[in-house]
Write a structure and sequence with these properties.
By secondary structure, this protein is mostly beta strands. It contains no helices and nine strands.
Length: 92
């Protein structure tokens, strides 16, 4: 993996789209990455958050029990952190 490659970071409970921004000095296995995933509410065409709707279905009947709206913003967008190469999967 090289600088400016896109990858998916596999955390303990989540997957995050990241861009590799560099390597950690003195390490061959750690990379510095920037989070590029804006969240499910981001509209790429409009370049703004339009939100996301969630529905809860009754498992027996399949009818909608409740419906809610959320902005769907990823508050970690742009965050820079270090990741081990085993936690990164390159995007094609």
């Amino acid at each position: 993996m090289q600088t400016h490659d896109s990858a998916v970071f596999q955390g303990k409970h989540t997957q995050i789209k990241v861009e590799i921004t560099g390597s950690v000095p003195g390490s061959r296995t750690l990379f510095e990455v920037t989070e590029t995933d804006r969240g499910p509410g981001w509209n790429e065409q409009l370049q703004k958050y339009t939100g996301t709707t969630r529905q809860t279905l009754n498992p027996k009947t399949g009818e909608i029990i409740s419906q809610s709206w959320a902005r769907g913003e990823n508050k970690g967008y742009g965050r820079i952190f270090q990741a081990h190469k085993n936690q990164l999967t390159p995007l094609a």
